[in-house]
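Researcher: Can you fold this with EPS in place?
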Amino acid sequence: MNNFGRIFKISIFGESHGKGVGITIDGCPSGISLTEEDLLPDLSRRKSGAKGTTPRIEKDLPNILSGTFKGKTTGAPIIILFHNTNTQSKDYSNLLDTPRPGHADFVAQHKFGKNNDYTGGGHFSGRITLGIVAAGTVAKKILGDVNIDAKLTEIGGKTDFDAAIEEALLEHDSIGGIVECKANNLPIGLGEPFFDSVESMISHLVFAIPATKGIEFGSGFDAAKMTGSEHNDNILSADGKTETNHAAGINGGITNGNEIVFRVAIKPTSSIGVSQKTMNISTSEMEDLLIEGRHDACIALRVPVIVEAVTAIALADLKLLDKARKA
Ligand SMILES: Cc1cc2nc3c(=O)[nH]c(=O)nc-3n(C[C@H](O)[C@H](O)[C@H](O)COP(=O)(O)O)c2cc1C
Ligand SMILES: C=C(O[C@@H]1CC(C(=O)O)=C[C@@H](OP(=O)(O)O)[C@H]1O)C(=O)O
């Protein structure tokens, strides 16, 4: 569904070509300083404009409609709204009958019928992550000294990002990428096994980011090739610091005081400038599909701050749950 969280509860709304998109946050403690300006730095990191991102430039200005008074949170639901001002829905006119391979057009129409808004990807659009980034900034404030930092480590399997993007643009194609996220300065003891383990909470939210295809924590899939004596992280001090960090700062679903580190695989954008085959679902004939519109050639370029946001949201909820348990 469109909500997540046990205490720090988020609920997303909006469509890419509708009036706007946004987020409601319930359960945020009162007294946290919060203005629209505070949200801008993270929002600007998600913005398009760089080479390889969509030419659809939006202002992405947040309007806090509720939940703050004199620059501080009140404890009431926080509603943050962004207006859509730069839409070109005619680019999508053919997609009702000829769904794009790899996008949500086909499944959305199957599940929700012809009333589904398919323009700009509708509610499935990456634009929905705008509200998530805003909520991430609020969550970072709840986490205080915890430092969360995500960056791109690979694009299209390469570390020369510019060359990889250039190549994809020349081919009118798209490429994926890997985003690595690290969280430091965490207390020991966050995480609510079994079902709200730290890995479960973060993964659940990471897979809400459209175009996510994989996640691995610490040594990840390589752990399956290691021996126990290689993989175990020797505990070196009473504060839990370990010699290595194959476990990514998490044991038994609970933070152990070391760095949380994980990598996220983002797929290549499905809307490409190369002709593709798809079925016309009105005529049941195969057709050549040429996609119009303004698309990100490499979505991964815009994803690091979104991954930071979902990590902060998961950890803030776990922090508030831990506090409630101890009260
Ligand atoms: C920030 C961001 C920007 C995106 N931009 C595009 C885009 O321009 N064109 C596109 O086809 N998909 C784009 N996507 C991905 C689609 O929204 C996504 O592929 C689609 O909703 C289907 O979901 P799935 O890929 O997770 O199956 C973007 C995703 C994010 C997070
Ligand atoms: C608008 C944003 O990204 C959009 C995400 C998106 C998609 O299919 O996810 C498709 C494109 O929409 P449009 O065809 O309207 O240009 C992107 O521009 C945004 O991220 O703010």
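Model: Folded with EPS in place. The chain has a mean pLDDT of 97.
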